[in-house]
Design a protein that fits this description.
Distance between the termini: 119 Å
Helix content: 25-40%
Strand content: 25-35%
Oligomer: single chain
Strand order of the largest sheet: 6-5-9-8-7
Number of strands: 29
Shape: elongated
Length: 778
């Protein structure tokens, strides 16, 4: 066989990648049989079948095995050396060890160096000859010698090669950075199969690994930074992404106006513009507890003039700074100087957070102890990291501004503070969603000492949801003034919502609001302190709960209604339940359905045991229990504890359905007003109103008739009859003798109206009580 014929090409894993025709003739396996198989397995099979192939092996010529570098991988080339190999063996091996770009270590069975290539020797200040005989971990100055010795020992014992293992060295004196090598281990055996040592091949991949690490860092920053919509949270994500992958310490300072959602200033930044430390992260391995004290987050930290930090805010140019003990700027910034001293920081990059000549802040990256100093390539990496972070911070800033506006709008639209009511105690619990929302509540005083209790929720977030909430809340107040029943009120509110949906559908396609569906839910309960009843209707929100004075609770059987503005004209069925004095009505948004309002909810026991507990304390307990939960939607709950109107504040009188009804009603009213201590002017007006209301009921109504006087925050006169006809105000002519009744009532009363029941109606009129202030109910 001619010298130089290619027999086999073996990769670093010991597997055949090429099998030449001379190898087929010499060893008997075809290329299809050999390629992809382990050389070790082939040799064992050859040894087991040695007698059969002895004639072939007897003719085998000597071979030459030499390493070949392909890219960053080492391949082993097996060549036919012919009869001349014995004479050329020494020269070839000498050339390989002298000129191969791949570093070679030949180790004995004790892992001591017996031979090293010139490329390997270039890694050390000491000559190659001085390293022979040393354990290879000592000769190579490895960062983790124990682990590497264990890997080599496993290869020595098992014979299984280890290829392309990334190994880091300690930084030698005079070297700017520590070196990184790709190392492969192969076991050496003599002609009898005895283990004689290892061959370790090394390729310097420092630049490749550093480049890959920089790309991995940028990918991690793009993946991990920007998920949250708070400026402080985004800065926290930034420092967590770069420490310790890029720096040992990262310090982020943001201009205060940016934290509050305001526009960032133009460059150069005025020295008096305040900065706030938004995030700080530092990790120093091997330091005892308490040695390193991080800089406090959330405090103002104006950068002193003449420091790299203030310089960056003037020209937005990143800076690579070598930290020396005599650096003049350290004296101007004692806080940072102390951190640098404690951490042993020796290299610093200061990079701006900026967008289009507007400065958002500055980021400081420190390296310390055994970390390599920053290089010029790292400045470009830091700039790219800060550019992405600046975009995320600006997005969070804009969201923060919108969130502040939305929260302000929502807060201004809610009752401030909740109005006091004589017959019901109200306590709201409002936990805003991080993105803002459209939940609201109301407690509206109605005629006859009644109170309308309302909880509503507009789906969505931001300013659009808050404005829609304000529109619906205004509509509720307008409709409540008509003294409608809860089911009728919800039906009209649904019509109002449908008109808003139709108006939104006409917006231009480029308007983001046109693509957002409008969905709203509402529940309305009207409490009557005279009858001790509560009429409830709901549109989409969870079933309400009542807590009795003895601490027991029950779900109120209120049939569900559709969400507001839902097509189909489904009704909003109302339910009237008895609600004795001291009961607590609980209504809330969907976010509370499973945890608080459901019978099996984890927080339902907080309601069950709060029969007489102060309502604000109960709200606090539920708020603390809900803290930290990630709920879908805004959390709003309204608690209302009922009170009965004292019996001596109500006069109820049945009336005959004939002309005698008016005199009887006036006389009874006169006596009751005197007992209440009402002033003469109000008493006279009340008698006139009673006379006109009763006269209209006798003339146009149907029996039975009833008069009711209620003395609470207002003096209310109510006359009920069984007719369903609607009263109308008429403007009678001068010569007319009738037709002025409601016109007179509208002129004398502060408010008047009509309320319809299942059978009949009630016409009422209210007057302010100027007298008997001391005798009014508390």
């Amino acid at each position: 066989m001619p010298s130089g014929d290619v027999l086999v090409l073996i990769d670093e894993g010991g597997r055949v990648v090429e099998w030449g025709r001379p190898a087929e003739e010499l060893l008997g396996w075809s290329a299809e049989e050999a390629v992809g198989r382990s050389v070790t397995a082939l040799m064992r099979e050859a040894a087991a079948d040695g007698e059969r192939k002895s004639d072939r092996f007897s003719d085998a010529a000597a071979v030459l095995v030499k390493p070949v570098l392909q890219g960053t991988s080492v391949m082993w080339h097996v060549l036919a050396a012919g009869d001349a190999l014995s004479g050329q063996d020494g020269a070839i091996l000498k050339a390989v060890f002298a000129h191969s770009p791949v570093g070679l270590h030949v180790l004995d069975s004790q892992l001591r160096v017996v031979r090293m290539s010139t490329a390997t020797g270039g890694l050390h200040d000491a000559p190659v000859g001085h390293l022979l005989g040393k354990h290879f971990t000592e000769a190579c100055e490895l960062a983790d010698p124990e682990e590497e010795a264990a890997v080599a020992q496993r290869v020595l014992e098992s014979g299984v090669p280890v290829v392309n293992r990334i190994v880091r060295h300690i930084k030698a004196p005079g070297q700017p950075t520590r070196r990184i090598h790709s190392v492969s281990y192969f076991r050496l055996e003599d002609s009898h199969g005895d283990v004689v040592g290892l061959v370790a091949s090394t390729v310097d991949v420092t630049e490749r690994e550093n480049a890959q690490n920089r790309l991995a860092l940028l990918d991690a920053v793009r993946t991990r930074v920007g998920h949250r919509l708070s400026v402080m949270d985004v800065c926290r994500e930034l420092v967590e992404a770069v420490v310790p992958a890029f720096a040992g310490i990262a310090d982020v300072e943001v201009i205060e106006d940016v934290v509050g959602g305001e526009d960032p200033p133009l460059v150069p930044v005025h020295p008096e513009v305040p900065l706030r430390r938004a995030a700080f992260e530092g990790r120093i391995s091997g330091h005892p507890v308490g040695v390193f004290r991080p800089l406090p987050v959330g405090v103002f930290c104006p950068p002193p003039a003449g420091t790299p930090f203030s310089d960056v805010l003037c020209d937005l140019r990143p800076r690579l700074v070598s930290i020396e003990e005599d650096s003049s700027w350290l004296a101007a910034d004692p806080a940072r100087a102390e951190v640098i001293r404690q951490s042993g920081a020796h290299s610093l990059i200061v990079a701006p957070l900026a967008l289009r000549d507007h400065a958002l802040g500055v980021v400081s990256f420190y390296r310390h102890q055994q970390q390599d100093p920053f290089e010029e390539e790292d400045v470009a990496v830091a700039s790219a990291v800060c550019a992405h972070a600046a975009l995320c911070i600006d997005n969070a800033r804009q969201f923060m501004r919108e969130w502040i506006i939305a929260r302000t709008v929502q807060r201004r639209l809610l009752p401030q503070p909740p109005a006091a009511h004589a017959t019901v105690e109200v306590s709201p619990l409002h936990l805003p969603a991080p993105e803002g929302g459209g939940a609201w509540y109301d407690a509206i005083a109605l005629p006859g000492a009644r109170t309308a209790l309302i909880v509503g929720d507009v789906a969505g977030q931001g300013i659009a949801a808050a404005i829609t909430m304000g529109l619906l809340r205004t509509a509720v107040h307008t409709l409540a003034a008509l003294d409608l029943q809860p089911d009728e009120l919800l039906a009209r509110l649904s019509d109002t919502t449908a008109r808003l949906v139709a108006a939104r559908a006409t917006l231009p396609l480029m308007d983001p609001l046109s693509r957002e569906p409008l969905t709203a839910d509402c529940i309305i309960a009207i409490y009557d302190p005279v009858e001790l009843t509560c009429t409830i209707a709901r549109a989409g929100l969870p079933e309400p709960v009542t807590v009795f004075p003895d601490g027991t609770s029950a779900d109120l059987p209120v049939p569900p209604g559709p969400p507001l503005a839902e097509t189909g004209n489904a009704p909003f069925p109302a339910t009237t339940v008895d609600l004795r004095e001291g009961s607590t009505l609980v209504m809330g948004t969907a976010a509370l359905a499973d945890e608080v309002l459901a019978p099996s909810g984890l927080l339902r026991p907080l309601l069950d045991g709060a029969g007489t507990a102060p309502l604000p304390d109960l709200c606090d307990d539920i708020a603390h229990a809900l803290a930290g939960d990630h709920r879908a939607g805004e959390t709003l709950m309204l608690l209302a504890r009922t009170k009965a109107l004292p019996q001596d504040r109500v006069l109820t009188l049945p009336l005959p359905a004939d002309p005698e009804a008016a005199p009887i009603a006036r006389a009874a009213a006169r006596r009751q007003l005197a007992a209440w201590g009402v002033d003469e002017e109000t008493a006279f007006t009340t008698e006139l109103i009673v006379s006109e209301l009763v006269g209209n009921a006798v003339r146009y109504g149907a029996p039975p008739l009833q008069l009711r006087l209620i003395f609470e925050r207002m003096l209310t006169c109510e006359v009920s009859d069984a007719a369903t006809s609607a009263p109308q105000v008429k403007h009678a002519r001068t010569i007319d003798e009738t037709g002025r009744g409601l016109f007179i009532i509208a002129s004398l009363a502060a408010e008047w109206g009509t309320r319809y029941q299942t059978q009949g109606k009630t016409v009422w009129a209210e007057q302010p009580t100027r007298g008997a202030a001391a005798k009014r109910p508390e």
